[in-house]
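Handoff note, outgoing to incoming analyst
You'll be picking up this chain. Sequence as last confirmed:
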Amino acid sequence: MTLTLLERGFFRLRCSVLIIGQSRGTSELAQGELLRFLAEAVWYPTALLPSQGVRWQAVTDNSARASLQDANTSVSLLFHFAENGLIESVRAESRGEWSPAR
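Most recent structure output, in case you need it:
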């Protein structure tokens, strides 16, 4: 199953050769989907590696900004890390803060 972001906020969910869902939207929809992917990548940490297209920039000793681009859509999130190096919270400036349950 693959989720493909297309130009101008279109995305398509494909399972094998059968298209099971498609939406046409705005660039805001594409940005929202890419933000969601980046935020949820904490559950699949290898997706956050630079080799997967994520660019990291240190902000403080315990935070860094991750940026990701897909075609004409680019997003960034601020990741805060605990003393043990694990992700403590993720924040998008326009969307508030998310923290995992403890």
